[in-house]
Design a protein that fits this description.
By secondary structure, the protein is α+β, with helices and mostly antiparallel strands. The protein has a domain at 5-115: Gcn5-related N-acetyltransferase (GNAT) (Aminopeptidase, 3-Layer(aba) Sandwich), CATH 3.40.630. It is 25% helix and 28% strand. The chain is globular. 31% of the residues are buried. The mean pLDDT is 92.
């Protein structure tokens, strides 16, 4: 089932919509607590956070202009040459229709210009997301990389860029 959507770089007007999507998804998966993105102090300020070298955030809009998904790339604290795939969330209506794939491709293409590896953290009960990341070349690892502060995220992945 194809859905018309448009992907673009985040704008200041998208901050509330992106925060809503993230909080919706975290609640859906029982992750609305400390140790996840739920407690990130900049959750409602993505436009401001994703300005500058080596960081960018994209949103996907549906045919009515509603933001339904997003993904970011940013530096991973405590590392060199490793970025983090950040805040990749889709509302249920945007799942399984190619939106996540397009967002991931944009993010990884951007990351290749700035980093050597891409790291991500997710939750054990997000099994569909895990299969998605594995399908797109991420390898599961068992020790955290860098310092994200997301101690409740128990499934970790890394991907070599520029291969």
């Amino acid at each position: 089932m194809a859905v018309n959507h448009q992907i673009r770089t985040i704008e200041a007007r998208d901050n509330a919509a992106v925060e809503y999507i993230i909080r919706y998804c975290l609640t859906e998966f029982g992750a609305n607590h400390e140790g996840t993105a739920w407690a990130d102090p900049n959750l409602g300020h993505f436009y401001e956070l994703y300005q500058g070298k080596g960081r960018k955030y994209w949103v996907a809009e549906n045919e009515t202009g509603q933001v339904v998904a997003g993904v970011g790339i940013g530096p991973l604290s405590g590392t060199e040459d490793v970025c983090e795939l950040q805040k990749m969330y889709c509302l249920p209506e945007a799942r399984g229709v190619g939106v996540a794939y397009e967002l991931l491709q944009l993010a990884l293409e951007f990351a290749k210009d700035h980093y050597r590896k891409c790291y991500l953290e997710t939750l054990g009960n997000m099994t569909v997301a895990q299969r998605f990341y594995e399908k797109h070349g991420f390898t599961r690892i068992y020790e955290p990389v860098g310092a994200t502060g997301h101690y409740a995220c128990d499934v970790l992945y890394i991907k070599e860029l520029n291969q």
